[in-house]
Amino acid sequence: MGILEAIILGIIQGLTEFLPVSSSGHLEISKAILGDNSLPEESLMMTVVLHFATALSTVIVFREDVMQILRGLFQFKWNDESIFSVKIILSMIPAAAIGLFFNDQIEALFSQQITLVGIMLIVTGILLFLADKAKKTEKNVGYVDAMIIGVAQAIAILPGISRSGATISTSVMLGIDRGQAARFSFLMVVPLIFGKMAKDIGDGALTESSINLLPLAVGALAAFVAGLFACRWMIHLVKKSQLKYFSLYCFIVGAIAIIVHWS
Predict the structure, then answer these.
(1) Which of 125, 129, 112, 111 is closest to 161 using CA atoms?
(2) How far is CA 59 from CA 14, 106, 128, in A?
(3) At what angle do helices 114-132 and 23-34 cross, to 10 degrees?
(4) How far is CA 99 from CA 44, 106, 156, 199, in A?
(5) What whole-number distance in Å separates Cα of residue 85 and Cα of residue 97?
(6) Which residue in 70, 105, 231 sits closest to 164, CA to CA?
(7) Distance separating alpha carbons of residues 188 and 132, to the nearest angstrom
(8) pTM of the entire predicted model
């Protein structure tokens, strides 16, 4: 993968991570358009690194919330901060389990499976359409809610299922306030991405000679900068706009991906 392609993928990741339109799906479509012939392992590594970069931008934007989670973990007191931290941990369990026990199967999905991406984008569109019909409330995330949202996040490992779309839609359909849903959705993925990166580093994945580190670094920088710009704007957009517009977008892109791939 060249430097220009890495920059393009980084910008796409940074912009689409915070919209409910599947950043992983857009990355796979973009790789196909750019003629990326990477091995599945290298392709997945680029996806993971770009997600890490946007997770880092999320940490910068939500630094006060991240500090709240850390205080909740290390104060050893049962207060609002520790309760919120427990909910974040509960939400991580399903995706962490899938990543540990089905890692090889997941890697195989990140090899330009464009038809799968198109179908999953349409599924995302359906979720967003249903969520758009849900009534607005001021309910906060509960313990059971956190687990259910975590299951939605685990399913969103599939390329084409929007992680933020799945988790925000699930939250809204559970009756949770949209602002709280967006905040929880963006924060719950940060520990998982950092954990995935730590595992890959421990396994030596980043030091394999077959992987060119320069495109990874350039792509990560592009994703980080784009993520810093997009994060606050996208959160405001999710809170204020109607999800049906994102739903329509997913339907159109998903259908185009399927038609073009088979034609």
Answers:
(1) 125
(2) 14, 26, 26
(3) 150
(4) 13, 8, 12, 11
(5) 19
(6) 231
(7) 22
(8) 0.78
pLDDT in tens, 95-108: 888 877 776 677 66
CA distances from 71 to 59, 68, 115, 219 (A): 15, 5, 44, 32
- Averaged pLDDT for residues 123-145: 87
Q: What is the mean pLDDT of residues 226-239?
A: 78
Under 8 Å between Cβ of 157 and 28: no
Question: Going by C-beta distance under 8 Å and a sequence separation of 6 or more, which residues neighbour residue 65?
Answer: 183, 187
Q: Is 204 helix (H, G, I), strand (E, B) or coil?
A: coil
Q: In this model, does residue 62 exceed pLDDT 60? A: yes
Output the pLDDT for position 93. 92
The Cα 155–Cα 162 span in angstroms is: 9
CA 176 to centroid of chain Cα atoms: 20
Structural domains of the chain, count:
1
Q: How far apart are CA 7 and CA 2, in angstroms?
A: 9
CB 28 within 8 A of CB 160: yes
Q: What tokens does 161 get?
A: 């299922």
Domain that holds residue 92: 3-262
Distance separating alpha carbons of residues 174 and 154, to the nearest angstrom: 17
